Amino acid sequence: MIGRIAGQIVYRGEDHVLIDVRGVGYVVYCTDRVLASLGRPGEFAALYTDLLVREDLLQLFGFPTLVEKEWFRLLMSVQGVGAKASLAILGALGADGVSRALALGDWNAVKAAKGIGPKTAQRVVNELKDKAPMVMAMGVGASPPPPLSDAPDEVVETAARPPAAPPAPVASAQAEALSALGNLGYGPGEAAGAVAQAAGEDGSLDTAGLIRAALKLLAPKG
Fold first, then answer.
1. What sign does the CA torsion over 131, 136, 141, 147 have?
2. Is the pTM of this model over 0.90?
3. Cα 221 from Cα 122, distance rounded (Å)
4. First CA to last CA distance, the chain
5. How confident is the model at residue 207, as a pLDDT?
6. Are 47 and 181 in contact (CB under 8 A)?
7. Exposure string for 148-184, b = 16+ CB within 10 A, e = fewer
8. For residue 81, with 0-12 CB atoms within 10 Å meaning exposed, 13-18 middle and 19 or more buried, which class applies?
9. 112-158: per-residue pLDDT in tens?
10. All domains of the chain in start order, with CATH
11. What's the whole-number average pLDDT of the chain?
């Protein structure tokens, strides 16, 4: 299975990008967020990918981090949520937003995605809320890959040899805070909820700040 591609951008469409890898063009479908983050035609790009295989269709979907790719795969596992709906949710919320919404049980945030009704949003939250701590923790210890400009002829990589994820600083801080709270004896669900709430109230918090804020939220009331 194709797990990552890296090459030169040929063009960007409304919902996809064409990336040339040593003379082979790969059409990769992405969210609006991802497309906006990519460079112009002629520049290089690297995306983690998930290959959707059907009887009459092969489609590649691209993501900037392994966390976002994992959420795509999990969202696709929910009954009634296909690739289009999964991309809509990720496009509306981003990987961090999905983690936060599910950790807090906020199905209204999921419902804000285009084409997602209240019943589907509630189903997503109910089926995936327990997955939020695991996905949020994926950023711990990850290191960024070498700069693309140093390896313009990089070839397609497979899922059997996945590269390290390049997590966003905020995502990494949340993952580290989640790990620390787990070491303090808090359960994954309550820790994820507290970290998500703290990050939502102040997006500039680093790991230490998130831990302090989450501990205040977890402290017994009264």
1. positive
2. no
3. 29
4. 54
5. 84
6. no
7. beeeeebebbeeeeebebbbbebbbbbbbbbbbbeee
8. buried
9. 999 999 999 999 999 998 888 888 877 554 444 444 444 444 444 43
10. 2-64 (2.40.50.140), 66-136 (1.10.150.20), 167-214 (no CATH)
11. 83
The whole-angstrom separation of Cα 123 and Cα 176 is 28
Q: Calculate Rg over the CA atoms of the chain.
A: 18
Q: What would the mean pLDDT of 34-61 be, rounded to a whole number?
A: 92
**Beta-bridge partners for 194:** none
Nearest to 64 by CA among 221, 158, 171, 197: 171
CB 50 within 8 A of CB 16: no
pLDDT for the residue numbered 220: 76
Question: 5-47 pLDDT, tens per residue?
Answer: 999 999 999 999 999 999 999 999 999 999 999 999 999 999 9
Sign of torsion, CA 84 86 89 91?
Answer: negative
Residue 84, classed as helix, strand or coil, is helix
